[in-house]
Amino acid sequence: MQVFKAYFKVMRGCAMPLVINLSVFVGLAVLFASVAPDALPDGFDPVKSPVAVINRDGDGEIAQGLVDYLSQVCRLVQYPDDVDKLQDALFHRMVEYIAIIPEGFSNAFMSGEECAIQKVIVPNSTSSHYVDMSINKFLNTVNLYRQYVKPVSPAGLIAAVIDDLSVDVPVTLETGRGMSEDDRPGHSYYYRYCAYGLLAMVTMGISSIMMAFNRPDLLLRNWASPLPRRSISVQLALGHGVFALGCWAILMLLGLVLHGRALISSGVAGLYALNTLVFAAVCTAIGFVVGNSVKSTGAQAGAVNIIALGMSFLGGVFVPQSAMSKQVLAVGKFLPSYWFVRANDAISGISVFTLERLSPILSSILIQLGFAVAILSVTLLISKDRPMSSI
Amino acid sequence: MLIRVANLVKRYGDLLALDHFNLEVREGEIVGLLGPNGSGKTTAINCIPTLLKYDKGTVEVFGRPMEPNAYDIKRNIGIVLQNVAVFDELRVEENVDYFCGLYVEDARMRRRLVDEAIDFVGLGQFRKFYPRKLSGGLLRRLNIACGIAHKPKLLILDEPTVAVDPQRRNSILEGIRELNRQGTTVLYTSHYMEEVEQLCTRVVIMDQGKTLATGTTEELKAMIGRGETINVEIYMLDPDDLEQIRCLPNVAQAHYSDDRLTVHFDGGTYNLLDLLDYLKQRDIPFSRVYSEQPTLNDVFLEITGRHLRD
Fold it and tell me: Where are the domains of chain A?
């Protein structure tokens, strides 16, 4: 295992660019972890908006029924029927909606005459729409009962309507499908950026080693030794594997440190790990290509940067795929980073582990694996029978 | 016979690098492969351990055909390449240990061999240095240490002393002699004829991929049938005296120009005494006298019409 042992000694000599890349990645990861939320919205809690109701209809049963209903779905704030005080309350957001029930509203409503509830709202506020919806729902239902359930007393009608509207339907909130970028949890971003981290570190490390062992005179010296060429290649491949696994393990560990609790509760840590591991294999293959292609460290640094940044941008690592044009996405599909991000985004949104939900993730991972095998095969084919005279 | 190369042909496209090249190296010899730059020395050296594929011919090492997968033969060969072949990322001792480890698996023995090799090339105080911190000469010495650490039975050195200072060069040559005394057979290429003359028990002169002549230094010099050349600075020499000098024993040629008498001899042992006796008898005043022995360059010149370092 002389070559394998030397592998990591040689790696020590190329450690500086790796440490720089890792530092940049860790810095970015920590920064984003502190900004992006880790938990997805996984339930619904109705918000009770502060509403002031000015009931000028007095004891009108419909008006009173509406007030009772609103007291269930909103937070009723008591204010006197004073325009100045009501405007002050609205200005200071003490209330977000003022509903004014006009005098004679109940009678007019029951007799089917046109009547309306006046409102004063905070412009463009979401809560005002919500209150509107609640009022409309109540009045429409009352109207429905009035028209089709006869004979009915206003008191019985209100009781029936409030009873109907109090029925809840259990809803299971399934997150993930069509999730917007803003909804993604922090660990999704972290693992997405892992693509850049792996590309920069694994590609740089492996290409450095390949360049060192591919120096023509060193090749000759190795080939002149009693160690078979196959054994040298196997030991180098083993070194590449251990190095890529090491980089992967560092990033996984960092992911656990930054997002551990959310990852464990979401149950997707294993899928992230698998996706990232396969992408590490792709990076190993790319590093192998670079190491076998370039001759100088300057060219190597250039190639690694172009590949890492280019694949990250075109694959949707830095810019979300949803924000990319069709043309760029079409190009991106020919890059493993695109499929990595696609799998990553699908993993971040998954909450139900069914075959249907897992299959797009697994197919993206398989495509990445295909890229790794294809890149490695082509490189091996080219370099396998490299004539000695070519060195 | 340790190495037997017969009718080796190697082409690089249209260029014929080795043209039916022949070489034989016997056990215990230090054979020098001498030729000008581009004569095919390195190509020949690289073909022997199958680092280069050749087009035609046979190579036998230790009496067996040399194949790329003849690992048991390779285990007994040490190679010091023309260019420095070490890892820039490894320290001096790590480099020697790495290359020694390709041949020797036993860790304890390897440690001992590495120490011996480092001491042998005088890099003891630079063990922890990275190659980029070493001068050109020190790098060359590291290159040699990497090739000899495993104590090979056959050592192939391809111009190992290029850029090494004269003092260290002598010590390296002495080291190679010592290795040879310990039983290592050496094949040594160089275009420095002085080195080859000083070191090698047998010399193979090659040019344009062909073996031109083989033999000991003396045998090669004898081939050209020319002895020493004596130069004498004389202020004035009468033409009659020049004629008389031409009649002295063993004189092949004699000519006088620019106050200098040059006499070429074709053998003999007391040529200088004979010449000086004549000058004394004739009372011819002279100042400086110096004698030149024929060199391998003269041999090369005689064979090819060119100088070795053309």
Answer: 2-40+185-390, 50-165
CA distances in angstroms from A22 to A249, A308, B154, listed in the order given? 13, 13, 47
Smallest CA–CA separation between A374 and chain B, in Å? Answer: 29
Contact A360, A354 (CB under 8 A): no
Same domain, B138 and B42: yes
What is the CATH classification number for the domain harbouring B131?
A: 3.40.50.300
Look at residue B98 and tell me if it is in a domain. Answer: yes
- The rounded radius of gyration (Å) of the Cα atoms in chain B is 24
> Best interface-test mutation with B: which of A3, A9, A232 has the largest number of B CBs within 10 A?
A9
The CATH code that applies to domain A50-165 is 3.40.1710.10
Residue-range definition of the domain harbouring residue B284:
227-293
Which pLDDT does position A229 carry in this prediction?
86
pLDDT tens digits along A337-389: 999 999 998 888 777 778 888 888 999 999 999 999 999 888 777 766 554 54
Task: Answer whether A14 sits within 8 Å of B89, measured CB to CB.
Answer: yes
| pLDDT greater than 70 at residue B280 | yes
Nearest chain B CA: its distance from A13 CA (Å):
5
Give the ipTM of the model, two decimals please: 0.80
Question: Per-residue pLDDT tens for B60-96?
Answer: 999 999 988 889 999 999 999 888 899 999 999 999 9
